[in-house]
Structures are given as structure tokens and as C-alpha cells.
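Researcher: Please translate sequence to C-alpha cells.
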Amino acid sequence: MSLPGSGSGHASVSGSPKVYVKVPASTANLGPGFDALGMALNLYAWIEMGIAPATEIRLYGDQMSGVPTDKSNLIYKVAQQVFDKAGVSHPELDIAMYSDIPLTRGLGSSASAIVGALVAANALIGNKLSSHELFQMASALEKHPDNVSASLFGGLTVAFWDGERAEHLRIVPDDRLDILVAIPRFELATEKARHVLPEQVPMKDAVFNIGHASLLVAAFCTGRYDMIRHAMKDAIHQPYRAPLIPGMTDILQRAEEHGALGVALSGAGPTLLALVNRKEGRGAELERFLLDTLRGQGIEADTMWLQVSAEGATVLTHFDPGVSLIDNVKGNVRT
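Model: Translation complete:
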């Protein structure tokens, strides 16, 4: 990952503060927990926001190519929803964003932007809305609560959104857990990955997933990581999405033989995610298996070792408003 050159900061309206938010990436579903389980990852986006005389949006980093820099930008639009709900008006904003989170790869890039915008805009107006209200807004925008709950609250989240209300509980897995992701070098839009899913699933598949998702949550709550290999199975979305990602079926079936506690499609994909007990020392073997399996299907991929981010979206107080966002985040980005 390369950083653009540094430069001077951009001033917002004289006397008005800037706020800075750091928001984690996320993975959703973890196999059986479709639209219900999310986990925050230590891969981040940073957002700077201030009130301005005219809107200016600056996007930094390789992940930001093609993202709008006018008022159609998602961060700007979400911020305006916060202001509307809080009963204030700030139509012109100075926004900057840097992200290490790949777009359309199943690592919660849109959720991180939504959550970051909500938290930044709310901080800018003195936190007039509660975190619960922000969660309701985020779930309604995403149409499911898994990624946004993880990015907002951190850790492993169990959540629902019934179309009107969202609720969640948070678990922080212990520090034995490492996460290996294999990120294919092609994009897979969530809309396309959802289009292949059936409108209805057999009762036996629904029962299968309820049991497995429940066991997976219990395994995290009790520290019984030996049960993850039994629990992290799915019957209602991964079988239908597997044809979109050559090599995925083989990885789901055989990753445990190479040291994974469990493996799943990350969100809507195409990223594949493996949970690993770092004490077992088989990470290099597993990484080779993932890359070789994908390469055997003509898919080039990049791997990344991550951990659970216990913290969700955080308002940063140590950033210097006198310099650019890039200068502020130097030393924190992945290289």
C-alpha cells in the first residue's frame, strides 16, 4: 500500500472544529450466521470531517479509486442524514478519507464508510445522537446489521434487524485467535452475490444453520475453539455463491486439514477467511494451501494476517488539525 505525498491541512470554517474517526473493517456471516454475525478486523479507514464554506471531499489510498468526490459521496450523504435527524443544518462539509479496506471484496468497506460517517457527523455536532440511534440508522442503510454492528461496536457481534429495529450483543474473543484472509484480485458486488441466493431454503437447511450458528457463538463465549471446526458450516448461502469464486468449495472442504479452525466466505465475497489458533503454528501451511488452491483455478489472490479489533469506530483526539489527514495517519496504515 502506498501513501500519496503529504501536504498541509485543509482548514474548515474558521473557529469550527474538525473531527477524526478511525473505523475497523469487518467480516460478516462467519459461515452459518447469515446477516447476523459480524466481526471487526484490525484493518482500518480514517475519516476527517469539518464544517466548511463549500464542500470539498478528498480521498486517499489505492482503495479509493472511482469513489465520488462530490455530494453524491456516501460519507457526505450519510452525514446529512445525521444532521437532519438531529435537527441541525450543515450543507457544506470538508471531508477527507483514507482507507486500507479493499472495496467490494467482502470486508465491509461500505459498512465502514457508513459507520465512520455517522460517528464523525455525530461528533461534529456534539454527539446529539446515541450509539443506539446510530446503529439503527446504519442497519437501515445497509439493510442488515452484521457488518455495521461490528464496525460500530468492535469485537464479535450478534445482531438482528427486522426492518424496523436493530439489536446486538458483543463478544470479545480471546487473544489466541488469528485471522487469515485470501483476497482474490477481482471484485464481487454484494448485489450480484445476493442475486444468486434462493428466495426460500428447505427447512432442514434452516435448522442446520440455526444449530451451527448457535454452536459457533457458544464456542466463542466459552473459549471452546475446538468446536469452531464443527460449527462454522453453512447450508443457506455459501453453496449458492461458490460458483462465483473458483476454488472456494475445495477451500471450504479442506482448509481444516491445513490448520484452520474453520473457514468461510467473508461476507458476500470473494474474500475467503480462515480462523486460526496461533499457538498451533500452522499458519504458513494454511496460507500456501489457500493461495495454491486459488491459483490452480486461475485466481490470483493476496493474503493478509489480521486479528479481531476489540474497538469499534473511535473518535480520535490526538490528530493534529493543522496538517493533512495523510500526515496524521502515517505510521498507522498497512504497508
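Researcher: Any highlights?
Model: The chain has a mean pLDDT of 92.
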